[in-house]
């Protein structure tokens, strides 16, 4: 029985590239190296939000999802560049080719991170730590970039571990230390816990995994809905989610057609808030979070456009959704045009298999775009 339990232990690696977009820019353009670089937004803080920032920029407090105006205030000497998604996709493809040397069980979460199940690796290496080391070295040697890796027996712990010693880190959380590790973890580090949920937890006296562990499952469900069950299990080191190499990821959205065409102003801002709240409620219902927000705009002449913004981490706060949707709208030159329809959507899911959450029913975001 003991041998059976040992062989059933999974070996999961989470690879997360270090400041991916910014690192690719600094690799390709030597003049950016060693300087505070911001990908996204615009020079002199004229609009937009930060997609990612180099480590030199992060020292000033610049981080993803921050407005470029705020970033420019924190570091007046920051260099702003437009994202080059074709370049990032090309690098991401090469990274996955490196992963595939070791396993076919690869679950991409975004261009710059993925889970790998190496319980049975192609090369017969056996050690997940050794495989993680080799992957990191191959990325460094072949692509001149660095990655951080987390190694553990489940997805949650591997993902947390990959963030512990950035950049260029490797952290292992073994089964014997799992529960103690979870007990010490601040609630902000748990998946799905954003600023609002963290504040709610702290009002209940829940500051760490140990505080969560002291609660009954029924109490956690009462406080946090279905996510309460996840909290109950994860603080005990239980996470049975499989690495899903063939996810079919769709999108969730909400939209509204106005009874009359609306011009820019307070009324339009109010509509953005209403539609964002409606879309966000759907995410909460299914307990899933995307990394990309898309704004859909149909004008009075029935012409339609979309604008999207992606973030390196899942969007799990309503305020961030509303602010991003407003920024996307403000970056559209309306001129004299008025708007007939607005939509807000989410995509780029990684943590959840959408088809399971929808019980066989899927929803596609703006299929006619």
TrEMBL record:
GO cellular component: cytosol
Cofactor: binding comment: Binds 2 magnesium ions per subunit.
Active-site residues, as the UniProt record annotates them: 113
Keyword Transmembrane helix in record: no
Coiled coil ranges: none
Substrates-to-products reaction catalysed: DNA(n) + a 2'-deoxyribonucleoside 5'-triphosphate = DNA(n+1) + diphosphate
Ranges of residues in domain UmuC: 12-194
Protein family: Belongs to the DNA polymerase type-Y family.
Complex and partners: Monomer.
Protein name stated in the entry: DNA polymerase IV
């Amino acid at each position: 029985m003991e041998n059976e339990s040992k062989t059933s232990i999974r070996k999961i690696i989470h690879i997360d590239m270090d400041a991916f977009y910014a690192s690719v820019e600094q690799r390709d353009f030597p003049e950016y190296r060693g300087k505070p670089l911001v990908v996204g937004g615009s020079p002199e803080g004229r609009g937009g939000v930060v997609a990612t920032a180099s480590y030199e920029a992060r020292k000033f407090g610049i981080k993803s999802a921050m407005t470029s105006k705020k970033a420019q205030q924190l570091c007046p000497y920051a260099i702003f560049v437009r994202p080059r998604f074709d370049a990032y996709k090309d690098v991401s493809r090469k990274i996955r080719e490196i992963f595939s040397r070791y396993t076919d069980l690869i679950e991409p979460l975004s261009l710059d991170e993925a889970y790998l199940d190496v319980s049975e690796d192609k090369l017969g290496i056996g050690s997940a730590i050794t495989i993680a080391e080799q992957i990191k070295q191959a990325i460094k040697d072949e692509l001149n970039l660095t990655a951080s890796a987390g190694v553990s027996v489940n997805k949650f712990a591997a993902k947390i571990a990959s963030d512990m010693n950035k950049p260029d880190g490797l952290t292992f959380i073994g089964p014997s230390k799992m529960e103690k590790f979870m007990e010490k973890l601040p609630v902000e580090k748990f998946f799905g816990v954003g600023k609002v949920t963290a504040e709610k937890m702290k009002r209940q006296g829940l500051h760490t995994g140990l505080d969560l562990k002291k609660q009954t499952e029924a109490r956690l469900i009462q406080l946090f809905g279905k996510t309460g069950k996840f909290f109950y299990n994860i603080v005990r080191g239980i996470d049975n989610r499989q690495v899903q190499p063939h996810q079919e990821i769709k999108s969730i959205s909400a939209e509204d057609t106005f009874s009359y065409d609306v011009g820019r102003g307070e009324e339009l801002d109010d509509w953005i808030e209403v539609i964002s709240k409606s879309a966000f409620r759907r995410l909460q219902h299914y307990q899933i979070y995307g990394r990309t927000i898309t704004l859909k705009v149909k004008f009075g002449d029935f012409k339609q456009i979309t604008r999207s913004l992606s973030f390196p981490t899942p969007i799990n706060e309503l305020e961030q959704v509303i602010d991003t949707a407003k920024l996307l709208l403000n970056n559209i030159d309306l001129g004299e045009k008025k708007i007939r329809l607005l939509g807000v959507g989410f995509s780029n899911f990684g943590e959840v298999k959408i088809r399971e959450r929808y019980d066989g029913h899927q929803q596609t975001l703006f299929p006619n775009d």
